[in-house]
Amino acid sequence: MMKTIKLMFALAAIFMVQATSSFAHTPGLPPVTKWDKLGQQKVNFRLDKDEIKVTLVQGLFTAIKLKVKDGPINMHKCVVHFKNGTKQNVNIRKNIPAGGETRVIQLDGGGKRIIKKVVFLYDSKRPRDKATVALWGKH
Hints:
Radius of gyration: 23 Å
Number of strands: 9
Number of helices: 1
Helix content: 10-25%
Low-confidence stretches: 15-26
CATH class: Mainly Beta
CATH superfamily: C-terminal carbohydrate-binding module
Mean pLDDT: 81
Strand content: over 45%
Number of domains: 1
Distance between the termini: 55 Å
CATH architecture: Sandwich
């Protein structure tokens, strides 16, 4: 009787380990994506252009987005400069409220890219609310 109970517990443990490991690797589940903050810039009140430099230590990226805090801005476009000397122009043309963000911007090239800097063109509508623009990169 005791051997049967031990055998049942052993089989149950094996079943639980297999079920858990197969669930963790189930095909069709989306992979976990990691976003890193690459830098930020306090922006002025007027039509202006600023840039956020990215260090090589931060790695390879497939997409970016810009997040705005502390005040609204009207984002016109950004230009992503890559390590290999190429660049990608992105028209945004969006009013972004404080706490808002751009759409996810997929990087050209089909793979992971090293970003050297991102230059963005914007204007701010409210001088009392100096906005901060943060650049985020997706691995």
